[in-house]
Amino acid sequence: MRLVVQGPAITMAHLSHLHGLVGGHAQFMQVGEHAYYLPVPEADYLGVKAFCASQQIDCALVQDGHRLQHMGLCVMDMDSTLISIECIDEIADMMNLKPQVAEITEAAMRGELDFSASLRKRVALLKGLPATALQRVIDERLRFNTGAQAWINTCKQHGIKTMVVSGGFTFFANHVQQTLGLDYAVSNTLEIIDGKLTGQVLGEIVDAQRKADELTKLRDQLGLSAAQTIAIGDGANDLKMMAVAAVGVAYHAKPVVQQQAMYALNVVGLDGVASLLSV
């Protein structure tokens, strides 16, 4: 096992205190600008986790087998994972409906509502909106989360294929794929007729099970084993795909996701995934 700690707040005093908590003869090794690791035995590290949480430091006990050189596929959620917004909430804002739609989105991400039903309910509220509003969301509001491009670049350097699989929409997922240089993109399609949204979603909705299925399908197409896969997400509809991956990372995620994920990042950016798996 490796204890990986990271965050811009880390000081040598933090590392010294953590070393005292876990004991041992090894020293922390630096693996990133604000990231360090320490070889440790399997044990109960509740004290370490509590200390790190109090100091705004991400920490994780990482299995030795979880290294970038062993991986071949990384599948990621889009909204609030690769990008900082929930696209459907921002589309709704164009119709002055953001509070109503955002409330449904938040409940769905917490796992309190059926995702497919909640998505159809939200999309129905967008009926009549000019399709030009979608480009406005990209131009005015869509921003990538810290470290997104760095993480994708790291994947490329290690020959890891990348896919965004999103309960959001193709208009945005295709933009994210092209901008970051992802290999694959799967998402929902909004029906547009005469330049306006109809309030309908075309085809099978990308829900939690579909996300897991897309991961396993692509994994098999690439001839990879389950042990070579990574999944990153933030909402309850990401849990199934994280469960079928060897490495599941909760990124600034809802509590239900952090509780079930193998690893969680709450302080650092997506480039922190590389620090988790690089040593």
Automatic annotation (TrEMBL):
Q: What is the lineage of its organism?
A: Bacteria, Pseudomonadati, Pseudomonadota, Betaproteobacteria, Nitrosomonadales
Reactions accelerated catalytically = O-phospho-L-serine + H2O = L-serine + phosphate; O-phospho-D-serine + H2O = D-serine + phosphate
Cofactor dependence: Mg(2+)
So which domain of life are we looking at? Bacteria
What name appears for this protein in its UniProt entry? Phosphoserine phosphatase
| Record's keyword terms, sorted | Amino-acid biosynthesis, Hydrolase, Magnesium, Metal-binding, Serine biosynthesis
Q: Name one GO molecular function term.
A: hydrolase activity
| EC numbers, comma separated | 3.1.3.3
**Record pathway:** Amino-acid biosynthesis; L-serine biosynthesis; L-serine from 3-phospho-D-glycerate: step 3/3
Per its UniProt entry, what is the enzyme's top EC class, as one word?
hydrolase
Report the sequence similarity comment from the record.
Belongs to the HAD-like hydrolase superfamily. SerB family.
